[in-house]
Amino acid sequence: MISFPRSTYLPEDRSEFHPCCRVSELAWRRMPNRARPVVTIADVARACGVGTMTVSRVINGKKHVSAEMVRRVEEAIARLNYQPNEAARTLKGRTSRTIGLIVPSLSDPFFSQCAHAVQQVAAEQGYMTMLFACESNRNVEVEELSQMRSRNIAGILIVPSSEESVEQLRELRRSGMPVVMIDRTIAGIDAGEVMVENLEGAFRATSHLIDHGHRRIQCVGYDREYNSISQRIEGYRKAMQTAGLQPQYTLVKRGVPIGPKILALLRSPKPPTALFTLNNVTSVTVLNALKREEIRIPQQVALVGFDDFELASLLAVPLTAVRQPAAELGRHATRMLIDSLRVGNGGERMLSRIVLPTELILRQSCGCEPIARITHAL
Amino acid sequence: MISFPRSTYLPEDRSEFHPCCRVSELAWRRMPNRARPVVTIADVARACGVGTMTVSRVINGKKHVSAEMVRRVEEAIARLNYQPNEAARTLKGRTSRTIGLIVPSLSDPFFSQCAHAVQQVAAEQGYMTMLFACESNRNVEVEELSQMRSRNIAGILIVPSSEESVEQLRELRRSGMPVVMIDRTIAGIDAGEVMVENLEGAFRATSHLIDHGHRRIQCVGYDREYNSISQRIEGYRKAMQTAGLQPQYTLVKRGVPIGPKILALLRSPKPPTALFTLNNVTSVTVLNALKREEIRIPQQVALVGFDDFELASLLAVPLTAVRQPAAELGRHATRMLIDSLRVGNGGERMLSRIVLPTELILRQSCGCEPIARITHAL
DNA sequence: GTATGAGCTGATATCGATATCAGCTCGAGA
DNA sequence: TCTCGAGCTGATATCGATATCAGCTCATAC
Known about the structure:
Two copies of one chain form a homodimer.
Chain A: H1 11-14, H2 25-29, H3 41-48, H4 52-59, H5 67-80, H6 86-93, E1 98-103, H7 109-124, E2 128-133, H8 138-150, E3 155-158, H9 166-174, E4 179-182, E5 192-196, H10 198-211, E6 217-222, H11 227-242, E7 248-252, H12 259-266, E8 274-277, H13 280-292, E9 302-306, E10 320-323, H14 326-343, E11 353-356, E12 359-362, E13 372-375
Parallel strand pairs in A: 1-2, 1-3, 3-4, 4-5, 5-11, 6-7, 6-8, 8-9, 9-10
Antiparallel strand pairs in A: 10-12, 12-13
Helix pairs in contact in A: 3-4, 3-5, 4-5, 7-14, 10-11, 12-13
The structure holds a DNA duplex.
């Protein structure tokens, strides 16, 4: 083996916090606040020889200020590189120009695409995005919601992943905080909703397998804790029922390995000839299991998944999947939230329900040979 | 085709902002601030019949308060569901418990994993994460950095994607704001750095192809605008040089399609027998092009990429790739930043340089048959 | 010539939490 | 008994921006 130079590399040293930083909570709180030299509105006012209100008016409304004065103040602002202190504005104005985004995870491309869109639309509209990833941990979600209140968040976008936070959310709504739920909803909360046509997408996916001549189609996924999953299950059931077929489910709790169950099922006397997976995590898990056992798709078992992803077309067997418009979801939700912030006063009127269509992307895992697209619109 | 019920679906209505919301910037600024009923420290104090300072002491230090008083105040806080107003704290204390994270994009799994780790570590340490995705747009990055100052961000984590922001960053550093650069660095800025062994990883990847008997190995990617890419290029060059081979580059500017270039190259008289792609976007682009032309990997051309991803093993030809510890990168950077916040006063001492090792994950695209792992440590 | 009001500007109070300092109580030591 | 200090508590000022209102100037109308 050829050798080569090494660069500085010190992972052990830093895998934990620096020793001098392991201070008690108490000591940490007593930490002196760093005094950063800041240019305030008073400095700008002094520089122009005017009062602070004049400067404030220039920064904001610009009404009732002479053109000459605007010029002078703007020049001083530029010269001093003044920037208004958002904390002070927030304190006075009661609401920050910041929206909170709570997602279960960012490792899932569905959520990260969604988050990306949210951040972009918000930025365009002058809002910052405070990001929270709760990793489906119930307590974390509750904690995060309470943090939001602390920080005078203007509104909340949430992919709810815990029934525990119902109480919190309801209370936030009562106090006038606009909330938009994305991808899933929690019953009993008067908030905006942006979802996809889960039932229709699942119906279409299942029907497609039926059209391929499959009769024993297994519905596979992680339980029905979210209503979006329930809707997909219902779409599957309806498609099976319509075709006079018996629905079959393999639904497990989060954390239970699903691969072995499917493999066992495929070795049973009357194995399913096709699988319908309820989300992309399930699809990938199942694909991994099938690959390990070298089960051929779609010859031995066909597969259609809910939720498409970028690399689906480059897989060993390109995956047929129901594409959800993740970025669109985020965009619509953000717009809805900001709309409701603008009309002010809780903006109840603006919080509505949007349901976006899905699209069945035909690739090879369902048994289709040609690559084609069927738009979901009927 | 079987028909099924449709749910409410109104995308056109909402593709833009609601008409009533297209207010001028002026009008929007004059929007009345919603008056939200808030429980303040004064309410808690009144409820206990004590002064606000006593309550403040209970919330924070708990020194110099009798046990009985602590009990009474805590009871009142719980009963009233009081939460301190972060804006007020920030205004008084000059620094918020919020860190800013700037990444080029969240659609790239490398960055989204990194962001996820950052958010988690920060949350554990009582910090919120303000997210910014600049989409490699120079002006946006500059704008975002100035927003940070406005919002009294405690510190900045950045995957820098623009030389334009050098000036901004330098000024922020001067004013005592801790900054940690992730994955890439910009010269001339005195900030923390958390990177991977790019040179070594690329050297190893290239050497592996050489060990497979390849002589014409093409280095493919999107220009050298970041130093991490430059280091990878240098690692490739060094490996080629060490083996007495001639390095060959296909480096294009962002936005230029790279697929056609590679295909043209493969049709030339002396085509490369192997490709080394400089990041995962490039790998995927090249894989797409090769698939379209049905070029077999590794028989017609072998491929090793820098940057591994979750689905690499499920691809038509499982990809051999240099794995970067994305989450580790985020974790270390966040720890470094928070360390430096804790020691306070700019925390210069704590801002150091960390370089993490990479790992070459052997799959089939390089020509290796068995699936095995070679740890990068030498 | 004076009244009126429109247009512009600044002094002051305010948002909520906390640093500072002064005041209070109580027990120990002189 | 008096003093002193330790321990606890509250009044006040402060952070930076803005709402409110008062004051000022000037032109027009009476």
